[in-house]
Amino acid sequence: QGLHRRRRDADDASRPGLIDRVEANADRVLDMVEALVEFATQRAGHASLVLADIDIAQVARGAVRDLSPSLDPSRIKISEDDIALARANGVAMHRVVTNLVLNALKYSSSDAPVELTFTRSRPGWVRLSVIDQGRGIDPDDLDTIFDEFARGRLAENDGGSGLGLASVRELVEQQDGVVAIESKVGVGTTVTIDMPSPRAIKPAAPSQRSKLSSSVRLPVEPTGQASG
User: Is the overall model pTM greater than 0.85, yes or no?
Assistant: First the structure.
């Protein structure tokens, strides 16, 4: 209300700046509402989340390709040869990767790389790691950073909703997976997603990758992206 009054009473020189502030605040509110709706939808859809044996490395590459060019996806380093078979849902994993990559890009400098790797964390599990060289997370926030609306002590006025990582945890746990985070201030953050896996293979030759991929049930592409 105060900002509205100042805009109404402002002279011609200051009015454009005030209008920009109003529009920016409106955009942040809209982003928050959209994030809340998406988070609530994810919880409501828990029972209908269908799992299948899919290649989450392929899903991750698709999520990276779907990013807007304005985000500079060339900063993202991801193998074109890895196969990481997991019992998961393709659409949900697409959202998980999108959220994590958007966070990594957002909280890193414009020339810092973001790396996605796939490994077997232990027998029967495959791990996706999203590694950045960003500002990191305060150690005192690591135990709560996946909670709803938790933004951490280092959060700036960047328009974040505090639901990005909460959404990731919700989706991963719905698929019987485990999410964890390690971070060091000024060095970067690594988020790991461990998913149940029948096998996790890094083929030695492209022909091996082609043979394996042909036996994998591929996910249906999502109609939109999740926000970070």
Answer: no
pLDDT for the residue numbered 37: 43
- Band (160; pLDDT cuts 50, 70, 90): low
- Strand pairing category for 76-78 and 114-122: parallel
| pLDDT tops 80 at residue 6 | no
Q: Which two tokens stand for residue 16?
A: 């454009």
User: What are the tokens at 219?
Assistant: 């996910």
Structure tokens, 28: 């942040």
Q: What is the per-residue pLDDT for 35? A: 40
Q: Residue 220 contacts by C-beta under 8 Å, 6 or more apart in sequence? A: 90, 91
| Phi, psi angle pair for 125, to nearest 5° | -140, 145
What span, in angstroms and rounded, lies between the C-alpha atoms of 225 and 228?
A: 9
Axis crossing angle, helix 56-65 with helix 90-106, rounded to the nearest 10: 50
pLDDT band at 174 (very low <50, low <70, confident <90, very high): very high
* Diameter over CA atoms, the chain: 70
Q: Are 56 and 93 in contact (CB under 8 A)?
A: yes
Q: Which residues have CB under 8 Å from 146's CB, separation 6+?
A: 165, 166, 168, 169, 179, 181
What's phi and psi for 25, nearest 5 deg? -65, -40
Sequence letter at residue 60: A
Mean of all residue pLDDT scores within the chain = 75
3-state secondary structure of 173: helix
